[in-house]
Amino acid sequence: xxxxxxxxxxxxxxxxxxxxxxxxxxxxxxxxxxxxxxxxxxxxxxxxxxxxxxxxxxxxxxxxxxxxxxxxxxxxxxxxxxxxxxxxxxxxxxxxxxxxxxxxxxxxxxxxxxxxxxxxxxxxxxxxxxxxxxxxxxxxxxxxxxxxxxxxxxxxxxxxxxxxxxxxxxxxxxxxxxxxxxxxxxxxxxxxxxxxxxxxxxxxxxxxxxxxxxxxxxxxxxxxxxxxxxxxxxxxxxxxxxxxxxxxxxxxxxxxxxxxxxxxxxxxxxxxxxxxxxxxxxxxxxxxxxxxxxxxxxxxxxxxxxxxxxxxxxxxxxxxxxxxxxxxxxxxxxxxxxxxxxxxxxxxxxxxxxxxxxxxxxxxxxxxxxxxxxxxxxxxx
Length: 381
Ligand SMILES: [Zn+2]
Prior knowledge:
By secondary structure, the chain is α/β, with parallel strands linked by helices. The protein has 12 helices and 8 strands.
């Protein structure tokens, strides 16, 4: 036929033939190399190329490699332009990878991902004098490209995760702030609804510090220990002082004390208080201050209770009762290092209408608290 084979490299000539590959061939007498055999298996061809390259790389330093790649003019299998391109590509691959990557990315952007057609001779190559068949992609390049894509994907993923994390943080923070705001709002509303809107004119601590109230005149007449009014159980740390009314119009302090005393005999009900203030201002102590009274169901173990007598039908205290209540309360607050806002109506704990007048007249109760504060400040030594 007059054709002769040109193998890809002289060293592997034998192997190429053994694999049944023909490689390229040229017309006798030189001329342009031309791809001939369509049936040539791309895979085999590339495996051969790969094998050759890795072999060469293993043995020969890069410079020699480059030198070898440029073959004498007669034996070139590519056009000069293509050789230059290949040389350039090879240099870029081995040399400045970053630059190469940037260039590829720019190209990608510019020609809409047709990087491939630019870097590898093929259909879109404007040189024109090269093999017009698309060359299959070198697996090494492919691998490199996949590696780059993977990195790219990882970067995108990382960016997405960062944004997501940011969102979650913002949502969490907003939620937390809202929750806190709502919490503060309800908290600041609570005491107004449950207790009172009494606002101390002086700092709580100052009132406590200023409180030098002496013990008022108190008649100690303790009940006999019994299961219904004086159980004799130990009182814990006092947190509040409760004010009650006897719910028995016109009765005296002594009468009410007797009523508690009699409960121990009749067993009619459980009730008592540490103090009873009569409508003439007299104060009777029924239970020692280290024992509990049966006065406020939930709070018997950490509070002290004061019963107040009254004459008026609406339950309003007489002025004498009121003044005695101020003195007694002020002294108790001093003893337990509490402030006027630690005073409570029975009503505040459980909703019972006690003391009636000061439940139905909220402002009267608030006036009592501010009177108490002034009483304490006046008594300052
Ligand atoms: Zn009560």
